[in-house]
Amino acid sequence: KMAAAAAGPAAAAGLWSEVNRCGQNGDFARALKSVNKILQISKDDVTALQCKVVCLIQNGNFKEALSIINTHTKVLTSDIIAFEKAYCEYRLNRIESALKTIQSASQQTDKLKELYGQVLYRLERYDDCLAAYRDLIRNSQDEYEEERKTNLSAVVAAQSTWEKVVPEDLGLREATYELCYNSACALIGQGKLNEAMKKLQKAEAFLPFTLICLQDVTEEDIEAELAIIHGQMAYIMQLQGRTEDALQLYNQIIKLKPTDVGLLAVIANNIITINKDQNVFDSKKKVKLTNAEGVEHKLSKKQLQAIEFNKALLAMYTNQADQCRKLSASLQSQSPEHLLPVLIQAAQLCREKQHAKAVALLQDFADQHPANAAEIKLTMAQLKIAQGSVTKACMILRSIEELQHKPGMVSALVTMYSHEEDIDSAIEVFTQAIQWYQQFQASQTRGANPKSPVHLSLIREAANFKLKHGRKKEAISDLEELWKQNPEDVHTLAQLISAYSLVDPEKAKVLSKHLPSSDTMSLKVDVDALENSHGATYVRKKAGKLTGDNQQKEQGQGEVKKKKKKKKGKLPKNYDPKVTPDPERWLPMRERSYYRGRKKGKKKEQVGKGTQGATTAGSSELDASRTASSPPTSPRPGSATAVSATSNVIPPRHQKPAGAAATKKKQQQKKKKGAKGGW
């Protein structure tokens, strides 16, 4: 036992030397073996346990490292192993546990502060994260300053993109492709797409030079980083409406097969949004990329939510009603106040022709979430219009109090009421909107009565509407109000005089005195330029030199009109002036008095037909024994009569055999009975 005890420390010293040497060389697998041998000698050696945890972390065995920490809590206290424990939890995506471990540490080292910033970023607590990185940059000076600035710019970009916060100028010099990329993302969040594209092009140019300076960088690493930049470029193209260019770039990135599952998921989702309800088979292929393992840890909550929304819409477009309802219900349970899940469910019900259920679903949501009621009620009104219930749609729109006075809402309601010929309700809409602006301006100006341009525009539109529908007396009060606001408005005065002329002519005469005289209303119009303009219907010919005769013609141009020469009609080629034209030549042939119908089979009249061996009328002429010298015999009944040698004898092929027409009719009847369709 004494010998073994003496041999233990000597062996341990050699093993520690091996551990130290392997650690410096980065051979942590071999170092782990030596550490395990040390723990066999002394199982509760704090330094050995701590070294083992570090070796496991370096080898990527975070689960085993965390297990050792949790099983040796008495030896490995939080003061000793807090960073390693929090880091293992962070890498295992146990972000909340990592935050608790960091906050429970008695001493906040620089390493813990760095990790704290990463944890806050993953939890999307961007304000706290920004403060943590600012503190780190202010209170540390080492070779990792550039990485901290990159992380700080990433936080600002996330705030601009997801929280729509206007980013402050951090004064960072964009000397690396990461800083250029993060700056571009911040600009996208602000909607400055052209500037963002320039930043991405700058990042693309910086990338090769930045990575070449690093060791162990391969072409694959450069392509992977370029794919991220190109993906953001394609997203800008999509936002700009250049969908074809964006789609082409997206597909190029997918063909490269990048290992970043987050990038692939985002690109696949964006392609699905471009496809919409078209090319659904391609969308079904792309949606598989969004289901890859680890995607949920690579993307933000809003990105994951957008992907789930698109999955539900794709299920609706592919007529997977149950899947669509399941996904939208799941989204609604996760975000009860969000509009999209309810709108997707309503859209699915409409596809199933269940409009009443869709309206009831939207009404329930509007009652439960009054803050989002306006958008829901707009959708309900649209459904009512689709059903033909315009009056009910108007009632729903008028129930949206925060939009009643808006010019767009007033215009929509007036148009719909006019379509239903409900002029009184349309005028009431105008009146309510005008009253709202009067009350609002009175509260803002403390009793003064200046009218805003929107208010005056509403009064003018109301007056025009009333004049159009014969409400002259009501229109007069609006026009007087407008003229009172601007007495020099000649157009309003003219309208007012026109309205009074139909109601009170004397008042119209009095008001007409306020019209400016014709002398003061000189219109500076260049007549020649107006006549020669592109839209002029009459263009005056350029004046040339006029002779004496031409001048007389010009003077009498207003009195004498030029006579148009009549063109002579064209006569037919076979016209004979000696022959009287047919008086019925203008009528169709069938309607003329001398029409006797068409003669069928002129060319086939004399072709022999009939049963085999039948004798036809021309058989005697086909007999060679009957020559011209033979005395003619008396004709047989039904046979052709003999003709003189000098007459025009019809050749046998042109003769029509007896009974040929009847035979032809029978054949046609047989064909009709047996016919079974044509071409």
Automatic annotation (TrEMBL):
Its main location: cytoplasm. Residues 541-597 form the Signal recognition particle SRP72 subunit RNA-binding domain. Pfam families: SRP72 (PF08492), SRP_TPR_like (PF17004). GO terms for biological process: SRP-dependent cotranslational protein targeting to membrane. Residues 95-150 form a coiled coil. It is found in: Cytoplasm; Endoplasmic reticulum. The keyword Phosphoprotein applies. Residues 561-571, 663-679 have a biased composition (Basic residues). GO terms for molecular function: 7S RNA binding; ribosome binding. TPR repeats lie at residues 227-260. Residues 625-642 have a biased composition (Low complexity). The keyword NADP does not apply. Residues 573-594 have a biased composition (Basic and acidic residues). One of its GO terms (cellular component) is cytosol. Keywords: Acetylation, Coiled coil, Cytoplasm, Endoplasmic reticulum, Isopeptide bond, Phosphoprotein, Repeat, Ribonucleoprotein, Signal recognition particle, TPR repeat, Ubl conjugation. Residues 540-679 are annotated as: Disordered. Belongs to the SRP72 family. PANTHER family: SIGNAL RECOGNITION PARTICLE 72 (PTHR14094), SIGNAL RECOGNITION PARTICLE SUBUNIT SRP72 (PTHR14094:SF9). Component of the signal recognition particle (SRP) complex, a ribonucleoprotein complex that mediates the cotranslational targeting of secretory and membrane proteins to the endoplasmic reticulum (ER). The SRP complex interacts with the signal sequence in nascent secretory and membrane proteins and directs them to the membrane of the ER. The SRP complex targets the ribosome-nascent chain complex to the SRP receptor (SR), which is anchored in the ER, where SR compaction and GTPase rearrangement drive cotranslational protein translocation into the ER. This is Signal recognition particle subunit SRP72.
